[in-house]
Design goal:
This protein has about 200 residues and is mainly α. It has a domain at about 60-195: Tetracycline Repressor, domain 2 (Orthogonal Bundle), CATH 1.10.357. Helices cover about 75% and strands about 0% of the residues. The protein has nine helices and no strands. The protein has helices at about 10-25, 30-40, 40-50, 50-80, 80-100, 105-115, 120-145, 150-170, 175-195. Helix 4 (about 50-80) crosses helix 5 (about 80-100). The protein is elongated and about 60 Å long.
Length: about 200
């Protein structure tokens, strides 16, 4: 039996930041609390992330997107139809949000809402994150026969629905906004592709 290796300090810092971003946003947690959650001394943060809290947040965003892409790829491998895969992706996000009592949303949206023009590194990381997700979904749509321009637009709509409905569900403490948005979007897409 193979044991799972204990995460190193860098990984613990990223995990603590990811959790903070999901629940409270970048500015909702202090550095001392973040370090305590990661079990790391202050000097170690700057060893791994010389840019401090912002650089750690960028690393957390990149890590979240990498995990989202792995999840999407796994879904698309087992459910090649991108519309069905989208339904499962949204259902998974709904379950994760519900399991946390509607307290732990998508860190991308949380950080995007609180970022300002004075946060260029965060904004660049978020823009890259959203673009990467849109591109992966668009590629799946194109592989399923959707023309390039339409695949790009549908992918943007899927990501907007995902992020927007998660925000609404978190505020409402209900999965209804996600269910309603998902069903409406997927019904429209299915009707569009029907002969």
């Amino acid at each position: 039996m193979t044991e799972t290796p204990t995460p190193g300090t860098r990984e613990r810092l990223i995990a603590a930041m990811t959790d903070a971003l999901r629940r409270r946003g970048l500015h909702g947690i202090g550095l001392t609390e973040l370090l305590a959650q990661a079990g790391a001394p202050k000097g170690v943060l700057y060893h791994h992330f010389p840019g401090g809290k912002t650089e750690l947040a960028v690393a957390a965003i990149d890590d979240v997107v990498a995990r989202m892409l792995r999840g999407l790829d796994a879904l698309l491998a087992s459910t090649p139809d991108p519309i069905s895969a989208t339904r499962r992706w949204m259902a998974g996000a709904t379950a994760r949000l519900s399991d946390t009592g509607f307290e732990s949303g998508c860190p991308l949206a949380t950080v995007a809402l609180e970022s300002t023009p004075e946060d260029p590194a965060l904004r660049e990381a978020l823009a890259r994150a959203f673009a990467t997700l849109r591109e992966r979904i668009a590629r799946a749509l194109e592989e399923h026969g959707e023309p390039h321009a339409q695949a790009q637009g549908i992918a943007a709509l899927i990501v907007a629905t995902y992020e927007g409905s998660l925000l609404q569900a978190r505020v409402a403490h209900s999965s209804e906004p996600i269910a309603q948005a998902t069903e409406t979007l997927l019904s429209l897409l299915a009707a569009r592709s029907a002969p």
